[in-house]
Amino acid sequence: MTAPVNSPLLELRHIDTFYGPAQVHFDLNLRVNADEIVCLLGGNASGKSTTMKVILGLVTPRAGHVLFEGQGITGLPTPQIVRRGIGSVPEARRIFPDMTVRENLLMGAYSRSDAQAVKLDYERMLDLFPRLQERINQRGGVLSGGEQQMLAFGRALMSRPRLICMDEPTMGLSPLFVDRVLETIEKIRAQGIAVFMVEQNANLALQIAQRGYVLQNGHIVLEGAARDLLDSPAIRDAYLGESQKEK
Ligand SMILES: Nc1ncnc2c1ncn2[C@@H]1O[C@H](COP(=O)(O)OP(=O)(O)OP(=O)(O)O)[C@@H](O)[C@H]1O
Ligand SMILES: [Mg+2]
Q1: What H or E segment, with its residue span, contains residue 223?
Q2: Is residue 25 part of a domain?
Q3: Quick check: CB of 149 below 6 Å from ligand 1?
Q4: Is residue 236 domain-resident?
Q5: Within a domain: residue 26?
Q6: Whose Cα sits closest to atom 11 in ligand 1?
Q7: In whole angstroms, what is the distance from residue 120 CA to residue 33 CA?
Q8: pLDDT number for residue 91
Q9: Which residue lies with its CA nearest to atom 29 of ligand 1?
Q10: Distance 91 CA to ligand 2 centre (A)
């Protein structure tokens, strides 16, 4: 099942999301093409993580549609969405702290039944992240923040996604690990996996993304090619302006 040429891999159309009476998204429209890193920028509480939750089926929008490879996935249970090819690296990584590195990685393949291919992917993952190989029998919880991020990437990749969604993958990491994480995201894309990345740090995200969207109070206020956004004075108003409010 592949997307028709020129149709986006992922599309959000006219999404309105609520938590109880509080509206979080207002007519949200965005898309990710098969060969792209796309970032969603915005200040605190603008609705970024909720966007990821809508894509992954953790929150059902009150209006609008989520399409993956041209098919509606709105409201499907998360495991079905994962099986269709969307992987995730959630906020604050959320690896399983009491499971070993090996167990964490294999959990990523829980929805797959092709044991032989899972074994090969597992080996590939250890090539991609040699640091994990060294710690394969240790508990996830004892890894450093940067190592846990690599483990969360590896676990997400074990589901063989065509799209991987990441919520603030560089948060709380030292500059060295931030660079590693950005390089890894580019490597992931080079393997033909599209990336949808939520970030507060516009400068970092726009260095590796092809396109970006800026979310402010649940509205997309700006979108475009990453290089145009980087040069845009409006991004400072729309994005830095908001994050400086009420702090
Ligand atoms: N489960 C929930 N129930 C009620 N309100 C929620 C829930 N989750 C998030 N919200 C609210 O929805 C709004 C958007 O939250 P969201 O987590 O999507 O923002 P965000 O852009 O990811 O913020 P941050 O940069 O702080 O991570 C916030 O006002 C938040 O308080
Ligand atoms: Mg968030």
Answers
A1: strand 219-225
A2: yes
A3: no
A4: no
A5: yes
A6: 45
A7: 27
A8: 81
A9: 45
A10: 7
Q: How far apart are CA 213 and CA 233, in angstroms?
A: 15
Q: Please tell me the number of Cα atoms within 13 Å of 82 on its side-chain side.
A: 19
Q: Is-contact 167 173, C-beta < 8 A?
A: no
Domain that holds residue 108: 10-40+52-190+205-216
* Mean local confidence (pLDDT), 196-218: 93
Closest CA to 11 of 36, 42, 43, 44: 36
CATH of the domain at 174: 3.40.50.300
Q: Where are the alpha helices (DSSP H) in 85-232?
A: 101-107, 115-128, 130-134, 145-157, 175-190, 202-208, 226-231
Question: What total number of domains does the chain contain?
Answer: 1
The pLDDT tens digits for 37-82 are 999 999 899 999 999 999 999 999 999 999 999 999 999 999 999 9
**What average pLDDT does the segment 78-89 reach?**
93
Which pLDDT band holds residue 245 (cuts at 50, 70, 90)?
Answer: very low
Instruction: Please identify, by atom number, the ligand 1 atom nearest to the C-alpha of residue 50.
Output: 18
Whether 195 maps to a domain, the answer reads no
pLDDT tens column, 7-37? 799 999 999 999 999 999 999 999 999 989 9
